[in-house]
Amino acid sequence: MEKHIVNTERAPRALGPYAQAVRWGNLLFVSGQVGIDPETGKLVEGGVEAQAQQVFRNLEAVLAAAGINLRRLLKTTVFLKDMAHFKAVNEIYAAHVPAPYPARAAVAVVDLPAGADVEIEAIAALAD
Hints:
Layout: E1 3-6, E2 21-24, E3 27-33, E4 36-37, E5 42-43, H1 47-65, E6 73-80, H2 86-96, E7 103-108, E8 118-125
Parallel strand pairs: 6-7
Antiparallel strand pairs: 1-2, 2-3, 3-8, 4-5, 6-8
């Protein structure tokens, strides 16, 4: 098996030495996405809700670059700078991620890249 890198200009560039996503066999490992607008390279304004909406636009763009969509998610991890944002992010998550839902973890962290309030990473299936 060979590792294949997935990148798209429709999602923000990596903030460090990593790929937006890596395909390994029938799995896609998507790096954590924060609420950076790929056109401006800046974190969107409007708080955690606006950032979460942008996170999903970025996540969808990376998945689309691999030829799939949110229905193919197997596992996600949601990183929150403040667990008080759990409810708001959870509502946005539920509006974007279709049932049957993937496995998921949500954790509070001290800080996130670019001063973000939320970050989501994912593992998705490329084929059945």
